[in-house]
Amino acid sequence: MTNELDNSTKTEIPQLDRAIKEIKATTKRVSDRLKACRKPVDRKVLAMIFSRLLDLEDALSREQSRCATHAEKILATLQLIDDGLKDDAAWDVADYLKELLPLVASADWVYRALLEEKARPADAAWRWTALCDEAKLNKVVEGYDGSLPGSEGKAARQNLAALYTVRNDRGRHDRARERLRAQYLRRVAGGLFVLLVFSVAAMLALGILGAWFPVITVFLAGGLGATLSGTMRIRDVDGIVHLHEAWRTMASQLALGGTLAVIVLFTLQTRLISLGTLDFSGTPDPVVLYLVGLISGYSEPFALGLLKKVIDLGK
């Protein structure tokens, strides 16, 4: 890192002088990491950080009076960028830089950002109109002459920064939700594998389990089906809170699915109703038994539909 500033860049504002030194060293570090990086996802976020650092470096050289007001925030953001920056921390830094740039960047940068906002599709989430009147946006864009004077320019910068903050918060929420979903799915996948091994082992242990064989096999197969069904629901859950609730609910899926499957088995063994041409009065084929248990646990409507038919017999 450079220890001294050139006379041409010295500002006599200690924090701003530090920021000017830091930005050059930080940009070089990120550039070196970008050249050595091989993972596409890491390259994408590092390239984003590098591009925004270049914009910030340009602002520090051209908009020093404006940057001086935000020198502490600039330094705090730069200090987050170290050699170990990766994953969510890297995306957070990219977000922070984007939120900072509208406040300190040149008028040309802000103008280009406003053009991008104006071009966003009408049905896009969090358009400029969420924070500012469309007419004001058009007025600033159409009246641009190389500068953003007065209250309109200040409002444009502040609203852009606020807009980026809202979008970045949503992005962080989405990333956290995906991590949580992946974590839950990994746990459920492990549980499903163990349950599958035990249920298949039970199906193959006809001679050992004797009379308990049908009940144990159907219960395990039903629990497997119910857990599999719950996994499908977790995959489609959007909210983190709801995802957490779904995970806790899945703890009861095993018992619920297994119990339903056993009830279906007992119902079929009484011959009050039949399932096609299958005969459950004796010892059914293990594969058929396993499949009926799996379907009963996976599909509550299937199991409850069979039970409803039994109830209807008494009417």
List its salient traits.
315 residues; mainly alpha; 14 helices
Overall description:
The structure is a single chain. The chain folds into two domains: 14-175, no CATH class; 177-313, no CATH class. The chain is 76% helix and 0% strand. It contains 14 helices and no strands. Helix 2 packs parallel to helix 5 (87-104) and helix 6 (107-119) packs across helix 7 (134-142). The termini are far apart. Residues 1-8 have low confidence and may be disordered.
Major sheet characteristics:
none
What is the averaged pLDDT score? 79
Q: What value does the Rg take, in angstroms?
A: 31 Å
Q: In percent terms, what proportion of residues is strand?
A: under 5%
How many alpha or pi helices?
A: 14
> Structural class from helices and strands?
mainly alpha
Query: How many structural domains are formed by the residues?
Result: 2
Overall helicity? over 70%
Contiguous uncertain segments of 5+ residues: 1-8
* CA(first)-CA(last) distance: 87 Å
Shape estimate: elongated
Query: Secondary-structure element sequence?
Result: HHHHHHHHHHHHHH
Number of strands: 0
Structure summarized in a few sentences:
This protein has 315 residues and is mainly alpha-helical. Helix content is 76%, strand content 0%. Helix 8 (150-204) packs antiparallel against helix 13 (286-298) and helix 10 packs across helix 12.
